[in-house]
Amino acid sequence: MQIASQTLIKELTSLTEHCTAIVAELHQRPESQLRRRPTPEAWNALECLEHLNRYGDYYLPAIEKAIIARPRLQAPPPFRSGWLGNYFANLMRVKETKVKKMKSPADKNPFGADVNVLAIDRFLKQQERLLVLLGDAANVDLVKARVAISIAPWIRIRLGDTLRFFVYHIERHVLQAKKAAESRDEG
Fold this sequence. Notes:
The chain has 187 residues and is mainly alpha-helical. The protein has a single domain (2-181), classed as Four Helix Bundle (Hemerythrin (Met), subunit A), CATH 1.20.120.450. Helices cover 55% and strands 8% of the residues. It has helices at residues 5-26, 31-34, 45-68, 83-92, 118-137, 159-181, and strands at residues 2-3, 79-80, 146-149, 152-158. The strands form two sheets. A two-stranded antiparallel sheet has the order 1-2. Strands 3-4 form a two-stranded antiparallel ribbon. A hairpin with a 2-residue loop joins strand 3 and strand 4 (152-158). It is elongated and about 50 Å long.
């Protein structure tokens, strides 16, 4: 995949703003609705957001570090996805509201944790930070800047692929949170 860096950043910014709006709307709902489980083994909306918060705790500082380490450019070159980064990003991408189910690493799985509505506030603050980082990333080479992935820190992928993976992952679980909040309580 090749795309103008500015175009990629605009797309990811738009998707981030859309996800933030969905969660801001969820924040208006009663906590009982946010604790609904579509099935007894499924995450509720608050757990979905806590899962994203745990990833944000890793990726936001890592993305910031990668951006700071690169020189600012007036006109960054086009972004070319790497094969591994493109694989991870496409794995997260929601296609026509269809989401492939995956197992979450134990340290990122909030199922059964005591999560409350503060998870929403934390998520929204992380989204604000992500929007700032996306703006900063618009002026760096998204190919040369690299970020270590959370499951294998010795593997570093291109910043553009990291941003794609991270934003698509957020979209995936925000849609899951919305669906859970709108479900009938099963658990």
